[in-house]
Specification:
The complex is a heterodimer.
Chain A (H helix, E strand, L loop, with lengths): L4 E10 L4 E6 L2 E6 L16 E5 L2 E6 L1 H13 L2 H11 L4
Chain B lengths: L2 H4 L3 H16 L9 E7 H9 L2 H4 L4 E8 L7 H11 L4 E5 L13 H6 L3 E4 L3 H10 L4 E8 L4 H14 L4 E7 L2 H10 L7 E4 L1 H7 L6 H6 L3 E3 L4 H16 L5 E3 L11 H10 E3 L2 E4 L3 E4 L3 E3 L8 H4 L15 H5 L31 H11 L17 H4 L1
Parallel strand pairs in B: 1-2, 1-7, 3-4, 3-5, 5-6, 7-8, 8-9
Antiparallel strand pairs in B: 10-13, 11-12
Helix pairs in contact in B: 2-12, 3-16, 8-13
Classes of the chains: A alpha+beta, B alpha/beta.
The complex binds iron/sulfur cluster.
Chain lengths: 92, 391
């Protein structure tokens, strides 16, 4: 929950609610981009790498940083946990 | 050497380690003890263990594992509050996965679930909101837990709920803040911390200005760090370089992610939704003034405490637990009398044994298997270091 996982913004879903699709290691997830968006210029974010914390993009990072962060998270065993949490979220 | 196969750039790691040696050789050292550098953040603790960094650095440096894992400092009384709400008729109680196993006086949320409560793990507060939309006849409560890293996401979720007028959603707020906690640690006359490795992702939200009292009033270096092993070694070196140069400042090793002034949109959302609580309870540390926030009265409908008339439970830690000593850096986990006996990852007494970012769980996991941990997790007994006197 405290480590951010990198993902890539692929599409803006709802500009009013600041929602976008983000791809995280092959998993697609709806994400809120309020903290990284410039109002009115959401489309500029498509293609950008961001650090995700609990479903919110908190920082724009470059691709190399994203790759290194994924490597560390993988070593810490965090990538699988995060992806599992995304998939299993809210199930009874 | 082991780091050769673990580091992305072993040559660079070697260079930083050489610099650390060289700096150590020309700096004043504390009398009769190693130099104590506290990594505040639980994510850093996890990285330090995973990469065996304590073993890589000279014996005269010791990493002290700080209180920066929100799950680890979750008090038993608050877990009881969660269980109370989860067992309320008609409630779907949602939480991040880590918090499900933390024991309260009536067991954990997982135990409550086994007894029939509808407790669900969510990845994001947005998923809890989605549950509320999809279940209009149920009350959905989200347990808003964490430092400033997760605060913007819960604040923005609450604002979204208010905006849409979702009537069956509320949050139990257990957000805590890092600066008052550092103040409390440093005001302890027994505090023997020589320098800090500061939290990267909290700082990404709040920026660096708030830490200035640490060098200015306490004369201690504070270096905000990233999570790669090389980031941590570099930050350690930056702390040492300050000590060697007789100076203390806030420095930012993680500038590629941490802006000096933090994230403005995140800070706006936090300020809109939350206000300081007079006092907040921490597991092991007790009550710390203004170290937590609550939901502002303007959003009372979305505040589970008000909505359900919750009377917060106040529960003392079990007698045998020494979590407080461990969180303050006075005891190493294996020096706790319950470690590995009454308290194990399968039967945790304290939250430090629950989360992967908890020092006790890390010792248990790495100490037992390969010794790539703090040196001595296995080769020092609980008594040979005069443990309490170290504080
Ligand atoms: S071993 Fe258990 S009781 Fe002791 S400090 Fe760690 S979590 Fe607390």
């Amino acid at each position: 929950m405290c480590l951010g996982i990198p993902g890539r913004i692929t599409e803006i879903i709802d500009a009013d609610r600041f929602l976008a699709w983000v791809e995280v290691s092959g998993v697609r997830r709806k994400v809120n981009v309020t903290c990284v968006a410039e109002p009115g210029r959401l489309d500029d974010l498509v293609g950008a790498w961001v650090l995700l914390h609990v479903g919110f993009a908190m920082s724009v990072i470059d691709e190399a940083e994203a790759a290194r962060t994924l490597e560390v998270l993988d070593a810490l065993g965090e990538v699988q946990d995060e992806l599992a949490a995304m998939r299993e979220s809210a199930r009874p | 050497m082991k780091y050769a196969d673990e580091f992305r750039d072993p040559a660079l790691a070697k260079k930083v380690l050489a610099r650390i040696d060289e700096t150590l050789a020309r700096m004043p050292m504390p009398e009769g003890r190693p130099l104590h550098v506290m990594e505040v953040c639980g994510g850093h603790t996890h990285s330090i263990f995973r990469y065996g960094l304590q073993k890589l650095v000279p014996d005269s440096i010791e990493f002290v594992h700080g209180p920066g894992c929100p799950v680890c400092v979750l008090p038993m009384g608050r877990v009881d509050d969660c269980v109370t709400l989860a067992e309320h008729p008609g409630v779907i109680f949602t939480t991040f996965g880590d918090a499900m196993r933390v024991p309260g006086s009536r067991g954990s949320l997982l135990d409550a679930k086994a007894r029939g409560a509808d407790v669900r793990m969510v990845y994001s507060p947005l998923d809890a909101l989605e549950l509320a939309r999809g279940n209009p006849d149920r009350e959905v409560v989200f347990f808003a837990l964490g430092f400033e890293t997760t605060m913007p996401s819960t604040a923005l979720t609450l604002l979204q709920a208010a905006d849409e007028g979702i009537g069956n959603f509320s949050m139990l707020c257990q957000h805590i803040t890092i600066i008052p906690t550092l103040k409390a640690l440093l005001s302890d006359p027994h505090c023997l911390i020589d320098g800090f490795i500061g939290p990267g992702h909290v700082s990404m939200v709040i920026g660096n200005a708030g830490y200035r009292f640490i060098p200015e009033r306490h004369g201690k270096p504070f270096v905000v760090a990233g999570f790669e092993p090389l980031d941590l070694l570099q930050s350690l070196w930056m702390v040492l370089a300050q000590l060697a140069g007789g100076r203390a400042a806030v420095e930012n090793q993680y500038a590629r992610v941490v802006p000096e002034d933090g994230n403005p949109a995140a800070l706006r959302a936090i300020a809109e939704v939350y206000e300081d609580r007079e006092s907040c309870d921490w597991r092991g540390l007790g009550a710390i003034d203004r170290s937590g926030v609550r939901i502002r009265a303007a959003y009372a409908d979305l505040d589970a405490e008000r909505r359900f008339g919750l009377v917060p439970a106040d529960v003392a830690d079990p007698e045998i637990c020494q979590c407080g000593e461990v969180v303050r850096g006075r005891l190493k986990p294996f020096q706790c009398r319950a470690f590995g006996r009454e308290c194990t990852p399968a039967t945790p007494l304290g939250a430090l044994m629950v989360s992967s970012e908890g020092a006790c769980a890390a010792y248990h996991q790495y100490g037992a298997t390969d010794g790539a941990t703090d040196r001595g997790a296995s080769d020092r007994s609980a008594t040979d270091r005069g443990a309490p006197a170290r504080g």
